[in-house]
Design a protein that fits this description.
The chain contains seven helices and five strands; from the N terminus they run βααβααβααβαβ. With 141 residues, the chain is an alpha/beta fold.
């Protein structure tokens, strides 16, 4: 299976949240993990937001950041290109998405076109997940 992770799914890998276990189960089954290149900034920002809001220790955040950076090297990453931007334009015309969500959806659509076999789009944002289903993607949850 090819597993595409948006940022809401990626964060569940590093912080125990609702449905983290189910996500990790799919992660282990995946042949490849795919995400957008913009997920790096989004994910790191999420880590530090959690640190501020939940008063996590610096050492813990550093361990999470180190684990993420190690995983990041193994991900297939979709870069923002003119080809991707054409898909972004189409999806924002069709669905009420924020900018990074549109990039994730467009990245998944583009990836599925290249790696169509057993493709799963993991996302915990309801609006983005609905748009993904309307685009014909199989989603988790």
């Amino acid at each position: 299976m090819i597993l595409y992770l948006d940022t809401s799914a990626l964060v569940k890998r590093y912080f125990l949240e609702q449905q983290s276990d189910e996500l990790l189960s799919r992660w282990v089954q995946a042949v490849n993990i795919v995400t957008s290149s913009v997920a790096y900034a989004e994910t790191v920002a999420s880590f530090f937001r959690k640190k501020r809001e939940a008063a996590f220790e610096e050492e813990m955040i550093q361990q999470v950041l180190d684990a993420f950076c190690l995983d990041w090297k193994s991900f297939l990453r979709v870069e923002v290109t003119d080809e991707l931007n054409e898909i972004v334009l189409r999806v924002v015309e069709s669905y009420p998405l924020r900018g990074f969500d549109a990039i994730h959806l467009a990245s998944a659509v583009l990836t599925r076109g290249s790696l169509p076999d057993d493709f799963l789009f993991a996302c915990f944002d309801q609006r983005l997940a609905q748009a993904a289903r309307e685009e014909g993607l199989v989603t988790f949850p």
